[in-house]
Design brief:
Radius of gyration: 27 Å
Mean pLDDT: 83
Low-confidence stretches: 242-252
Number of strands: 12
CATH class of the largest domain: Alpha Beta
Largest sheet: 5 strands, parallel
Shape: elongated
Helix content: 40-55%
Oligomer: single chain
Distance between the termini: 22 Å
Strand order of the largest sheet: 7-6-8-11-12
CATH architecture of the largest domain: 3-Layer(aba) Sandwich
CATH topology of the largest domain: Rossmann fold
Structural class: alpha/beta
Number of helices: 11
């Protein structure tokens, strides 16, 4: 996968390099004739194979080659050679590539061309209930916004708008977070959540996302357990309900409050960016 981090590694590796090409031509085949030797030193340049070898310890070969190709198309890098003999001898930085290497970041318009999804956005599936508004607000404003991740949910008007807009939002966001909370109480005293949340999670999986599920304590095994087995999850309890469970002597293992648990979600998102060589966002600009 081509990422901003790999592209940046390519241009930074080229930045400041000076490479001398030597060409020897024997135009006179007379014995003892001195060959014509030409040299050319080029700044911010090196042979493509040498560049790739320097990066192989960190990135997979297909990702490096794809990044170089993207940089070529974007006119960040070009090639230097001698005519037909060496048409693509060196890879070098263009002025645009030098600016990218020095700034360390793509501008927003170029980043949109690089990614098929917004790497700094999270779709948050949730119930539109008053009790859940505070959960979404805390996750969006206190956890994700401070680390530069924009959170949005599925609130739209109309059934047809819902179907298309939800899928569009899920597709465009790199991250999918589901706040799986109680909705209907079951006979055994546990709870089920909204069927919409399960459907949105399924849609996210179909679109190639890796869901992170925030599971409220008290959900029935059938309604939360399968999701927990298949996807990353974090359990939490609302402070008021946690106090009630302790009051009645519940044997359920105590869960952290949502404030503590949701901070873990933010850290997992940052870990994903690091693992995929995507620079962490600047909260001031995202």
């Amino acid at each position: 996968m081509v990422t901003e981090g790999i592209c940046l590694a390519v241009v930074k590796r080229l930045r400041g390099q000076a490479y001398t090409m030597t060409r020897t031509l024997n135009l006179d085949d007379t014995p003892g004739a001195v060959p014509n030797v030409s040299k050319s030193t080029n700044d911010n340049a090196m042979p493509p194979d040498l560049l790739i070898r320097h990066l192989l310890a960190t990135y997979p070969l297909p990702d490096i080659e794809s990044a170089i190709r993207w940089l070529e198309i974007g006119e960040y890098v070009g090639h230097i050679g001698w005519g037909m003999l060496m048409p693509r001898a060196l890879l070098h930085l263009t002025p645009k590539g030098i600016a990218f290497a020095d700034s360390g970041r793509l501008d927003a318009a170029e980043r949109d061309l690089l990614y098929q999804e917004n790497p700094y956005a999270a779709f948050v599936a949730r119930q539109f209930a008053a009790d859940d508004d505070e959960l979404f607000a805390f996750l969006a404003d206190r956890v994700l916004a401070p680390i530069g991740i924009k959170a949005f949910d599925g609130r739209v008007d109309g059934i047809e708008a819902f179907r298309g807009e939800i899928l569009r939002k899920i597709r465009l966001a790199r991250f999918f977070v589901c706040i799986l909370t109680r909705r209907a109480q079951l006979r055994d005293g546990t709870f089920a959540s909204s069927v919409w949340l399960y459907q949105e999670t399924g849609a996210a999986v179909a679109l190639g996302k890796k869901p992170l599920i925030l599971v409220e304590a008290g959900l029935g095994e059938h309604y939360a357990g399968e999701l927990q087995k298949n996807y990353e999850y974090i359990t939490f309890a609302r402070p008021s309900r946690a106090r009630m469970m302790r009051w009645f002597g519940s044997r359920t293992r105590a869960q952290p409050g949502y404030a503590e648990a949701f901070q873990g979600a933010g850290q997992r998102i940052l870990n994903d960016l690091d693992a995929n060589h995507i620079p962490r966002p600047d909260p001031r600009t995202t």
